[in-house]
Amino acid sequence: MAFIHIKKDWVLSDRLATPEDVYVNRRYFMKAMGLVGAGALIGASSGCEAAGDFVVEVPESIPGLYPATRNEKYRVDRALTPEKIAAQYNNFYEFTTDKARVHTLTGKFEIHPWQIEIAGEVEKPGVYDLDDLLKKVTLEERVYRFRCVEAWAMTVPWTGFPLKALIDQVQPKSGAKYVRMVTFNRPEQAPGIKNESWYPWPYFEGLTMAEATNELTLLATGIYGHALPKQHGAPIRLVTPWKYGYKSIKSIVKIEFTKRRPSTFWNELAPKEYDFYANVNPKKPHPRWSQASERLIDTGDRVPTRMYNGYEEQVGHLYG
Ligand SMILES: Nc1nc2c(c(=O)[nH]1)N[C@H]1C(S)=C(S)[C@@H](COP(=O)(O)O)O[C@H]1N2
Ligand SMILES: [Mo]
To answer: What domains are defined for the chain?
Structure first.
């Protein structure tokens, strides 16, 4: 377990330089100091809050995975959101519906060891250990826009591998038309599951096979050059940047290949508000608010929403 201590003055300098420069420099600075990697303990949480600092708890089980090489094909024309902001503004209802408090409630959540069950229409079903799985894939870093259906947006560097790389290994049968994914269900480790029992836990999501194997569809295990902190969906979560954030299911324990379109958590709760596809579309308002613009969570600026969140070139052909 490592703690990355984000100092107040680094946050201030994030504001002065272009965020991307600061991020890259900070990353290499940490690496040079030996602060990135398994077993490094940078600061402790005590006292840091009072100093106005913020500690990101970074659980790394395999040394040397981070930072991964950035894939420059996936760049965006927006500044990176400072990590300190992204790590304290989370949707993860298993812990709480209060975005600012998710990171304070993940202490009991155990993410190592972690198994993923592969099931359904597939040649190689079974229970796979995440550490073993990670030895068979190549991690890369990609900067993506991220757009929540609630009309806020951020820009973050994910580390992960294409979902397609996993799908190729487990060999779906010809009957597999959809991929269904499920989150952990441990009320004793996640107060939201325990206290908000009316939700249809565990969280579940789905994609068509064409979406699941699209080049953009990433299984992320890291963010900002290190392993995922728990609030972002450790140890492994989906990222589909052309879709509203609720599709990007966190802390995945099961991946199932199905013949029929699976139902999804938010679609089951409110079908008129959250559709299966959930493709970002400025012209299609949510029943209760416009989707024409979005608020950047770091600056508060309102900017126009882009069709498919700016990824029309990669995914436009998937939809008629
Ligand atoms: N298991 C699970 N996955 C989830 C959610 C959740 O509540 N539970 N929230 C979703 C929503 S609505 C968003 S916007 C993103 C937020 O990801 P972030 O906190 O890393 O920014 O996670 C998505 N994945
Ligand atoms: Mo969201």
So the answer is: 16-36+45-60+82-111+132-164+175-250+258-319 (3.90.420.10)
